[in-house]
UniProtKB/TrEMBL annotation:
Family note: Belongs to the IAA-amido conjugating enzyme family.
Chain ranges of the GH3 middle domain: 361-443
A Pfam family assignment: GH3
Top-rank taxon, per record: Eukaryota
Residue ranges occupied by any GH3 C-terminal domain in the UniProt entry: 459-573
Source species: Abeliophyllum distichum
The entry's keywords: Ligase
GO molecular function: ligase activity
Protein name, per record: Auxin-responsive GH3 family protein
C-alpha cells in the first residue's frame, strides 16, 4: 500500500537525505564552513583562531586548520560564556546573532542540569528531523492523512534569567515554537491534546488529560508516542489506577475534579463536553477485560487503529522495553531518533528494526561531527585512575570512522559550541550511503567504581537484566532501578536499588542479588571482589512508588517529564535519602563467599 501521508513532501525529504548521505563527507566540510562563516568573529573562536582568513581556503585545509587550532572542550569551557549570556550580555560571545533562549538539559544522565544555547536553528533542525523520521516511518507503516497522535508530551516551566533570557527544556521551547505546529500541518498528523494540556506544568493533570482526550478521539489515533519511552509507561501505569474516572468523564461530558487548572479545564471541556455514554461503555468493557489480563495488549485493544508505538527506547530506556511490549502487544515498537539538547545527531532509517538493534544515520547538515576513537584499556591495573576505562585516539572526521569501532561524539554546532565533547559513546555499525550509522552504547562517564573497578551504565544494565530474568521466572516485574557505589565504608561496595511489582520470596531475591554480583565481568571488579577490597553487592528493595518520588523530585527542580531519564547511578544525597528511607528489604551477595 502506498502511504497516504503527504506523498510528495515525503519523497522530497527522503531524496534530500539520500543525497546528503551520499556526499556526507563534503556536506560535513560545508557545514563546518557555514558555521565558521556565521560565527568567525565571536569571542570564543577569536581566542583560538585569531584573525585567520579562511574564505579562500579549500574545505580540507579549513577542516585541518580548525581542528588544529580549536581545542576539544567540555561543557565547563562554555559555562562562563553561557553565564554571561544568561546575565544579559549582548556581545557576540559564541554566536554572532545574540542568543535569547537557553535550554536546560535534563540533567538526569549527568546528575546536573546544564544551560545549553538554543536558537531558531535548533527548532528548524528539530522540524527537519521529525519530518525526515516521519517520512521513513510512513514508507513502512503508512498512516491516515489527518489522523491523530496520542503523544505523551510535557512542557516544563519557562523562566527568565536576570538578563532577560528565556530558559526551559529544549522540548519546551520546541512545543512553544511555530515549528511544532508546522510539523503537524506538514506531516498531516495532529496531537490529541491542546497546548494548554502540554504546558499545564502539572504532569499528573497533563497525563490524565492526554489519556482522556486520546480515548475520546480513539478511532482517529494512528500511533502512540512520547519523547522517551518512560513517559508512555508512567502514563499507562497511572491509567491502570484511574481509568474508571476517565470513563465517567467520557460518559457524562465532565472533567474530573483532579484537573484544577482553569485554562486546562476550559480547553479540555471545549472538546469533550458532549456526553458519550456509548464510547464510555466500550472503554469500560475493554478495561474490565484488560484488567483481568494484567493489561496485556492495552494499546491495540483501546486504540485499534494505532499502527505502532514511537519513542526513544534505546540507552537508558532499554530496561522499559519489557513493560512497553506488554502494553503494546503485537504492535511494532519504532525506536525514535538520536539527539541531545546540544544538537540532533541521527535518524532511524529502518523503522522496522527492533529497538535492541536500532542504529541512527548521522544527518551531516545538523552539526559538524568528530569522533574520538575509544579503545578498551589493555592494562587494567595501569588504567586505575578510575575515571575511565578507555584509551583515546585522536578525533577523526565523519569520513574516517570505521565499522565496529566505538567513539565519543564531538560536536561543533550552529548554536555556539565548538569541538564540544558530548560524553556519549556510540559504535559505528554500518553506513547509510556514506554517512555512518551509530548504535548508542552509553554515557561515557563511569557510573560504578570503588577502586580499580570500572562499570558504565551499559555494564550495569546488562547485570540488572540478568538479575531480573530470575525475577520474571517468579512472575514478578522490575519496575525501575538505580545504583550507588558506597565508598564511605571499608571495603566499599555496590548497592543496587530495585522497585518490584508482585510478590517474591526472599530466597529468589537472594538469588537475584548473587547473580548480579557474579555478572559484573569487569576485571577490576572481579579481582577486587575476590580479594575483598570490594565488599558483597547489596540489593535494596524499595517500597512501591519510590521511583515516582524520585521523578517528582527532579520535576520539582525544573526537569520536564518529556526528557526525564531515571539516573542509573546516584551520589545525590537527596535521592539517596529517599531510596534509603523507603528501603524495605536488604540482601548481601554470597557470590564470592559467605
Ligand atoms: P538531554 O541532555 O536531556 O538533552 O539528553 C540527551 C542525552 O539523552 C543524549 O546525550 C543521550 O545520552 C541520550 N539520548 C538521546 N537520544 C537517545 C537515543 N535515541 N538513544 C539513547 N540515548 C539517547
Amino acid at each position: 500500500m502506498e502511504p497516504a501521508m503527504y506523498k510528495g513532501s515525503c519523497c522530497d525529504i527522503i531524496s534530500w537525505f539520500e543525497d546528503i548521505s551520499e556526499n556526507a563527507s563534503c556536506v560535513q566540510m560545508q557545514t563546518l564552513r557555514r558555521i565558521l562563516q556565521l560565527n568567525f568573529a565571536v569571542e570564543y573562536l577569536k581566542k583560538w583562531i585569531g584573525e585567520v582568513n579562511f574564505e579562500d581556503m579549500e574545505d580540507s585545509a579549513l577542516e585541518s586548520l580548525y581542528t588544529s587550532l580549536v581545542p576539544l572542550a567540555s561543557h565547563a569551557d562554555f559555562e562562563p560564556y553561557v553565564q554571561r549570556i544568561a546575565d544579559g550580555e549582548k556581545a557576540p560571545l559564541i554566536t554572532q546573532e545574540p542568543i535569547s533562549t537557553l535550554s536546560l538539559s535534563s540533567g538526569t544522565t549527568d546528575g546536573r542540569q546544564k544551560y545549553v544555547p538554543f536558537t531558531c536553528h535548533s527548532s528548524k533542525t528539530t522540524l527537519q528531523l521529525f519530518k525526515l523520521a516521519a517520512a521513513y516511518r510512513s514508507r513502512i507503516y503508512p498512516i491516515k492523512e489527518g489522523g491523530r497522535i496520542l503523544e505523551f508530551i510535557y512542557s516544563s516551566k519557562q523562566f527568565k534569567t536576570k538578563g532577560g533570557i528565556t530558559v526551559g527544556t529544549a522540548t519546551t521551547h520546541y512545543y512553544a515554537s511555530e515549528e511544532f505546529k508546522i510539523k503537524q500541518r506538514q506531516t498531516k498528523s495532529y496531537i490529541c491534546s491542546p497546548e494548554e494540556v502540554i504546558s499545564s506544568g502539572d504532569y499528573k493533570q497533563t497525563t490524565y488529560c492526554h489519556l482522556l482526550l486520546g480515548l475520546y478521539l480513539y478511532d482517529q489515533v494512528e500511533f502512540i508516542a512520547s519523547t522517551f519511552a518512560f513517559s508512555i509507561i508512567q502514563s499507562f501505569v497511572s491509567f491502570e489506577e484511574f481509568w474508571e474516572e476517565i470513563c465517567n468523564d467520557i460518559r457524562d461530558g465532565t472533567l474530573s475534579s483532579k484537573i484544577t487548572i482553569p485554562s486546562v479545564r476550559k480547553a479540555v471541556l471545549d472538546i469533550i463536553s458532549v456526553p458519550n455514554p456509548c464510547l464510555a461503555k466500550r472503554v469500560q468493557s475493554k478495561c474490565v477485560e484488560l484488567e483481568e489480563k494484567d493489561w496485556l495488549g492495552l494499546i491495540p485493544k483501546l486504540w485499534p487503529n494505532a499502527k505502532y508505538v514511537y519513542s526513544i527506547m534505546t540507552g537508558s530506556m532499554q530496561p522499559y522495553l519489557t513493560k512497553l511490549r506488554h502494553y503494546a502487544g503485537d504492535l511494532p515498537l519504532v525506536s525514535a531518533d538520536y539527539g541531545s539538547t546540544e544538537s540532533w545527531i541521527g535518524v532511524n532509517v529502518d523503522p522496522c528494526c527492533p529497538p535492541e538493534k536500532v542504529s541512527f544515520a548521522v544527518v551531516p547538515t545538523f552539526s559538524y561531527f568528530e569522533f574520538i576513537p575509544l579503545n578498551r584499556s589493555e592494562n587494567e591495573v595501569i588504567g586505575n585512575s578510575a575515571i575511565d576505562d578507555f584509551v583515546e585516539d585522536d578525533p577523526v572526521p565523519l569520513s574516517q570512522v570505521k565499522i565496529g569501532q566505538q567513539y565519543e561524539i564531538v560536536l561543533t554546532t550552529f548554536t555556539g559550541l565548538y569541538r564540544y565533547r558530548l560524553g556519549d559513546v556510540v559504535e559505528v555499525v554500518g553506513f547509510h550511503r556514506n554517512t555512518p550509522k551509530l548504535n548508542f552504547i552509553c554515557r561515557r562517564k563511569l557510573i560504578l567504581t570503588v577502586n580499580i573497578d570500572k562499570n558504565t551504565e551499559n555494564d550495569l544494565q546488562l547485570v540488572v537484566e540478568k538479575g531480573s530474568q530470575i525475577l520474571r521466572k517468579s512472575r514478578a516485574e522490575l519496575v525501575d532501578f538505580t545504583s550507588h557505589a558506597e565508598v564511605g565504608k571499608n571495603p566499599g561496595h555496590y548497592i543496587i536499588y530495585w522497585e518490584i511489582k508482585g510478590e517474591v520470596e526472599e530466597r529468589v531475591l537472594e538469588e537475584c542479588c548473587r547473580e548480579m554480583d557474579a555478572s559484573f565481568v569487569d576485571h577490576g571488579y572481579v579481582v577486587s571482589r575476590r580479594t575483598n577490597s570490594i565488599g558483597p553487592l547489596e540489593l535494596c528493595i524499595v517500597e512501591k512508588g519510590t521511583f515516582k518520588k524520585i521523578m517528582e523530585n527532579f520535576i520539582a527542580n525544573g526537569a520536564a517529564l518529556s526528557q526525564f531519564k531515571t539516573p542509573r547511578c546516584t551520589t545525590n544525597q537527596v535521592l539517596l535519602t529517599i531510596l534509603n528511607f523507603w528501603t524495605i528489604k536488604r540482601f548481601r551477595s554470597t557470590a564470592y563467599g559467605p
